[in-house]
Amino acid sequence: MAASTALKGLLVPHVLPENCYDELFLSLNLLHIPCLKIFISKGLGFAIVAGSLMVKLPQIFKILGAKSAEGLSFHSILLELLAITGTMAYSIANAFPFSSWGEAFFLMLQTVAIGFLVQHFGGHTGRGVTFLLVYFGVLALLLSSLTPVGVVTALQAFNMPAVITSRLLQAATNYRNGHTGQLSAVTAFLLFAGSLARIFTSIQETGDPLMALTYVVASSCNSIITGQLIYYWNVPVDKRKKE
């Protein structure tokens, strides 16, 4: 009985509404489709958020280990950061559940760190510090009551061209270099898998077509980078230098 009470306290109402808890765990009606969809969506959502805590850490460690950010496009990082920030601000403004967007917060912190490292190892540490100050200043303004909801919605709508341009810039950099440089395969594969899963969770948890379409576009674009990582897998980073 104590275990059942503890389980209910853990799941209700954060993961399941009480009626769904009763259906799935008390009545053992595991084929109750509406409740099953909620459970799967919430589970996936929290798993994505948890995974986002370290999804870009392999990329950060790879840059730090090589003391180089060769192969990473700073403009691509800026556009990706814009898309992540738009999703986070839009979700907060619309009071969407944290499980439907929480990874944006952790990806934002890691992407900002990567942006700074690209500048730092490119010999522009001062520019990197300025980037940090400007970004967090703009973020504070976006999340404040001073920013109209219409502006936040427009920023979310801009996510799609931002994501497309970001990935195409990185893909073009990879193509020009003839390799993927310090781009982390683990990070790229996790981003691709996460954006695919987010299509389902955004439809289920927010019902917002703009959010769902953003993740459809992100998945398509992430697949290009993933494909390049596979194609250039055995190409050494210094191939072009030798040529």
Automatic annotation (TrEMBL):
Subcellular location: Membrane
Alphabetical list of InterPro entries matching this protein: MannP-dilichol_defect-1, PQ-loop_rpt
Main location: membrane
Source organism: Podarcis lilfordi
Keyword vocabulary terms for this entry: Membrane, Repeat, Transmembrane, Transmembrane helix, Transport
Any one of the GO CC terms: membrane
Swiss-Prot/TrEMBL GO biological process terms: oligosaccharide biosynthetic process
Keyword Membrane belongs to the record: yes
Protein name: Mannose-P-dolichol utilization defect 1 protein homolog
Gene3D superfamilies the UniProt entry points to: 1.20.1280.290
Transmembrane segments: 31-51, 72-92, 98-118, 130-158, 178-200, 212-233
Family, similarity comment: Belongs to the MPDU1 (TC 2.A.43.3) family.
